[in-house]
Backbone:
């Protein structure tokens, strides 16, 4: 305690000398209380000033996730946000982000349900057996994958390829919606029941949702067909899927979607 008082006394004398030579220095309280005989530690504000950081009084408040999403104006910015977004992850550890792939200015966007094992391994949507079938289906109406954009409701793989849980879909949807708004497709094709019900906020079965074009968020035309994985399990669905895909191509041509495609 004596050492502390001696140090405080020396500082006080130094300040008094400085005040005699220069302008007065703001008064400081160097008296130690009985409960704390040491000099006060530097405050957080002092530490921030020393390190060059903004103080809490002057710093901007942290942005909410909605604000961060709205601040993303490019797919690269959105991808960077998705990379660090813990809310997008499932309960399967060490999964890889499957953001989406294709033409960022496409007028047609395809949206599936969730990545599988091969998609997780490569970080791209629809690269497994169902993806190969999807490529063939699109080729039948003269659409190449490089001309469209493909994404999923979930951006991380769920364990055992189970269907996405409602809470997973709810957490992922704002990121997908922002992705859609950046791309601004004229047409959206939902692949599978989970994709269709999530975007249309519906509980109807897929057979009642397909065969027509729905208005999605006022700006987009959305239609529905079976997921390619379902076709691999049930070949009887191929006839209906082919009808849906032909209807999609007809609407694509009708609205003058780009890029322009070869005639059927």
Residues:
């Amino acid at each position: 305690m004596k050492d502390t008082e001696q140090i405080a006394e020396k500082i006080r004398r130094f300040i008094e000398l400085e005040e005699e030579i220069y302008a007065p220095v703001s008064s400081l309280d160097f008296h130690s209380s009985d409960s704390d005989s040491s000099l006060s530690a530097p405050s957080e504000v002092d530490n921030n000033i020393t390190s060059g950081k903004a103080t809490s009084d002057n710093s901007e408040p942290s942005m909410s996730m909605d604000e961060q999403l709205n601040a993303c104006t490019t797919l690269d910015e959105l991808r960077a946000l998705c990379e660090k977004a813990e809310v997008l992850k499932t309960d399967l550890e060490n999964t890889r982000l499957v953001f989406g792939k294709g033409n960022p200015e496409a007028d047609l966007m395809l949206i599936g349900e969730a990545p599988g094992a091969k998609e997780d391994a490569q970080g791209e949507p629809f690269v497994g057996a169902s993806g190969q079938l999807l490529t063939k289906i699109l080729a039948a109406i003269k659409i190449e994958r490089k001309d469209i954009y493909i994404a999923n409701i979930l951006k991380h793989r769920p364990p055992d390829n189970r269907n996405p849980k409602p809470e997973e879909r709810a957490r992922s949807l704002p990121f997908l919606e922002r992705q859609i708004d950046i791309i601004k497709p004229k047409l959206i094709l939902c692949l599978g029941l989970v994709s269709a019900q999530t975007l249309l906020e519906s509980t109807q079965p897929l057979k009642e949702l397909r065969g027509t074009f729905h208005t999605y968020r006022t700006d987009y035309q959305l239609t529905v067909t079976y997921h390619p994985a379902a076709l691999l399990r049930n070949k009887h669905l191929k006839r209906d899927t082919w009808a849906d895909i032909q209807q999609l191509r007809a609407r694509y041509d009708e609205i003058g979607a780009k890029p322009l495609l070869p005639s059927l």
